[in-house]
Amino acid sequence: MDIELSAEDLSFREEVRQFFSDNEYPAGEDYMTWRTQWFEKARQKGGWDVPKWPADFGGPGWTPTQHYIWEQETARASLPFDLPFGVGMLAPILMAYGNEEQQHRFLPDIRSRKVNWCQGYSEAGAGSDLANVKTKAVLSDDGTYYMVNGSKMWTTAAHMADWIFCLTRTDASGIKQKGITFLLFPMQQDGVEVKPIITLGGSHSVNSVYFTDVKVPVENRIGEEGKGWTYAKGLLQHERTGLAGLSGSLVALEKLKEQARSVTRGNGTLMDDPGYRAKVAELEIDLMAAEYTELRSLASASTGAAPGPESSILKLKGTEIQQRIQKLTVEAGGIYSAAWGSKPIGLPFARGGMGGYLASRAFTIYGGASEVQRDVIAKNVLGLKRSSK
Ligand SMILES: Cc1cc2nc3c(=O)[nH]c(=O)nc-3n(C[C@H](O)[C@H](O)[C@H](O)COP(=O)(O)OP(=O)(O)OC[C@H]3O[C@@H](n4cnc5c(N)ncnc54)[C@H](O)[C@@H]3O)c2cc1C
To answer: Angle CA(184)–CA(87)–CA(364) in degrees, nearest 5?
Structure first.
């Protein structure tokens, strides 16, 4: 595919840059008010608040190159905080499998970011092997509601979420991929309890969530009972594509080089050190290769195709690249990277390096661990057959 930017693309890039600079956060203003206004203005631009949504649902209907430009520019701009669960993950499922009533009911509040969602997939014993979900949903005798009991694990932002989309078990008699049902329900109700999990970097973003006799009306079920696995798999591919973060890595790599140039090494800087330089070069080459895969994925998305197994390549390479950047940042900071706390010691960039590095350990776990992505690539991209041994 041709990635030379045409005159129209260059002018689109200018328009995007202008929009970002005209709508920067004005220091001191109320953040949430600015955030709401930012999304409203982006919407008025013609669907810029939901760049990946199809035009039929109010998205901008951009070309792959325009999507690429947008991704590149968003990495450099400071945009309002936006969790991926509603707009990026649940919305495509509602569009593909939800009925019209559900689309009208949920999509507007997802789009305006009025309602925060969280993803209730993983459980203890059902992470990589997600089809093993045990959280039970039992249909009432009159067929009007499900009674949900069980628990979810590692639920990001459950403590801030208004609603959850949840995989539940409605039938345990057949193969485990059958009998999974996809339900939506509010978090603020009796029977839903959220407990924080503090992760390695010291932060609270994930939780355990417990359900005791939670009543969920049948109209909150997506698609058919027992077919949730099909919908869940579709969502995972959207999730994986979004986790690669390549444009963010391009910006982070530039920052890394700048930081390494600020570190004295012998008569020069760390960037003159052949060993360190080689690692940076290797990283840059891998990042370029991943970018081309992303462009291929964008090209197929522009024809309306759902993300395919290439989303596993992007997830795998993209998250490993993010980790390598964190690792090289810690390496550049040397002993100062070990400092923990509010005051920087030694090199100014080193503080926070270790926190970022530790937090990045999770990148190759969530959204499907790297080993699992390699399995998907072996099977669906390379066409390898599993050994019978
Ligand atoms: C920070 C963070 C945020 C998360 N947010 C969410 C969220 O919002 N919602 C949600 O539902 N889940 C979330 N998760 C859960 C995440 O999706 C799971 O942690 C992930 O799928 C791995 O499952 P597990 O933790 O049960 O590990 P396991 O599946 O037990 O895996 C343990 C190890 O075994 C390896 N392994 C497993 N199966 C295979 C195999 N077939 N072949 C080779 N190796 C294998 C894995 O790669 C891993 O190294 C989050 C996790 C983290 C760490």
So the answer is: 90
